[in-house]
TrEMBL record:
Its EC number(s): 2.8.2.20
Family: Belongs to the protein sulfotransferase family.
Name the UniProt record assigns to this protein: Protein-tyrosine sulfotransferase
Broad class of enzyme this protein falls into: transferase
Amino acid sequence: MSTNYKGLLVRKLAGRKGLRRIKEYGIINEDKLNRELYDGVESFLMFIGYPRSGHTLISSLLDAHPNAIVANEFDDIGEWQNWIPTNRNKYFLFDQLYLNSKMEADTGYRSATVQHRFNYSVPGQWQGTFDQKVLVMGAKKGGHTTRRLMKRENMKLLKDIHRVLKIPMKFLHVVRNPYDNIATMMLRDLKKRPDAEEKINDPDNLDNQIAKYMSLAARNNQLTKVLPGDVHEIHSSELIKEPKKTLLGICQFLHLSCDQKYIEDCSKRIYPEASKTRYNVIWTDQQRETVRKKLQRFQSTRGYGFDD
């Protein structure tokens, strides 16, 4: 592999967050799957939703499946746009996703040996590799993908990816309690971590985050009707309450067979309860009511309340 090509892979390996871990990863792993394996892929997976909804966990659990490779924090639409025309093909894209998956398992959030604030490793399963065949290839970027798809030119890029891949596209729409999403968006904007001893009081910022969330919700509602593929909705509360049932539903949606050990191992990685960051922020009664009313507009958020 030439030095220039290695440099290109460094820049494309894992998206923005992945670049922070390149130094830990060292030299670029030169493994690539052969074309016969890539030609056996039956569907391409993407995520839509909101920031901090559980996309990283779900994508990591899917990457642990023996017949799936799901990259983390990989902006496939943005990368596709930036690549030179000769790289806009199935084999180059799938190479990047595979390398991302390997790096995440070696030194990233899915590593069983490297310490991170969050860890999504599934010991005994197939993160960063596969068993004989790959049926699902995918990339996780969550809320960022929804923001990208607000622009018409990016919808055209998505359709171009679909045209080039010539396989069905599938989308996971991950939904968390909106009040927690909004609160977490505000905390991240202020560079604060949830603290049980401190409640953040910034009504103007909270209003901004409410507006951003509702914009994402409106677009996700539209996307479920216009995306070039099937959409499966996952509520993080259901994943916590009934992990095995929810995981089986995802596998069925992706036409992946799941043995009992895979389901058991993945279920162990699911948090016993959701983080309720809504209580780390001070809300006015009007803000709570504004959110409640606006959530009624969308099927996916209609049942949520502040005190759930």
